[in-house]
Amino acid sequence: MARREHQRIAIVGAGLTGLLIANGLDLLGIKYDIFEREVPESKRRREWSMGVHWSLDLLKELIGAEKSAQLVEKATVDCNLDYSTAPANGALVYDGVSGDVLKNLNVQGTSLRVSRRRLRALLAVDVDVQFEHTLRSVHTTTDEVKLAFSTDNDIRTYDIVIGCDGPQSTVRAFLYGQEGSAKPLDGTSGMRWRSLVCYHDAEKAKHVRSAHPVVAISIHPDLLFFLGPQDAHDSANPAEWTFVVDLHWASGSESANDGVEALKMAKKKADKLCEPFRSAIRWIPDDTVMQASDLNVWISRPLKDRLLSPRVLLAGDAAHAMPPFRGQGLNHAIQDSYNLVQTIKRLTEERATGAVADEALDAYAEEVIERGAAETKASILNGKMMADYYDFKSSPYAKKGFSKG
């Protein structure tokens, strides 16, 4: 790595992970370019909620005091809640047959439930993202990385390239070849359906939310059901609250071919559920579009020869594409971002080059691989045990809840 006053850094992917890294570098005054293959967020439909628990302090350090002060108001699913205490700082797992509470997932201290879209909008403030830039190729030399994008014929040269481009990462594919492809989790194809639902009825909305103000999970032999508000900021108007309805058919169950069929199947299965989960499905408007959501996973693994590309790194889903069954994906993405920003900070302060810089970047990569692989395996196991209903009490969720590791 040649000696320069500032390293040339490229962030590929402007999802949450890429924006977290960009925010961290901005606070340090370290320059970078950030590229995103898709159009700006305002034109995209995908939306869901995520938990920020053990990584919250790292998140605040990455984004600084000004944005941290806006997290509850601008990023959460309900700005009226006190996320520092129960029940809003956790979730409840129910037996979908009996209605009994199987597990209280409260954590110590503050735990936020954030909207993916709202958090991304907050993180994107003052970040100059180059949208509609699809990565075409990555070439490494002894001390540089060259990127080519489909939008132009220019070859852009960097000292460090960070792949934050999601579960089906192009940067990961460059590093690992065919071994870098995320694969559908066994037995889940056509089994997971998600939608945002507005019931347009205040009493119905309040009943649906009665299971838990933030996240309620129902475990049933026929159906695994994640339910929670997606936008409940207007406390005076419950009729307009929107909820995320996330349904997983049990292993070995019939699969749906499209969203219309999925909704019909869900309403049929709902007859066996306890309240309020039964009504939460029965009351879904018939014209609601259920969207298939394949569970693509990739377990982190060492590169066969990292010396060939020591300055190409991965973070977030690109580094460890894990299923959502333990609520850990965003937290590990925040940990990745924090670790990488700290590594780049140290390299910049020390003006490290050559083998010294490569060693520091290798240390980052090795830690991400070890931590990411362990959590991805735990999340896969947890999902299978939750879907099998009778195994839940032995699952990582039941034993460790939202805790790290």
Automatic annotation (TrEMBL):
Domain named FAD-binding: residues: 9-373
Cleaved signal peptide residues: none
One Pfam short name: FAD_binding_3
Requisite cofactors: FAD
Entry keywords, A to Z: FAD, Flavoprotein, Monooxygenase, Oxidoreductase
One GO MF term attached to the UniProt entry: monooxygenase activity
Entries under InterPro entries matching the protein: FAD-bd, FAD/NAD-bd_sf
Domain of life where this protein originates: Eukaryota
Alphabetized PANTHER family for the sequence: FAD-BINDING DOMAIN-CONTAINING PROTEIN, MONOOXYGENASE, FAD-BINDING
Protein name (database record): FAD-binding domain-containing protein
Protein's organism: Neohortaea acidophila
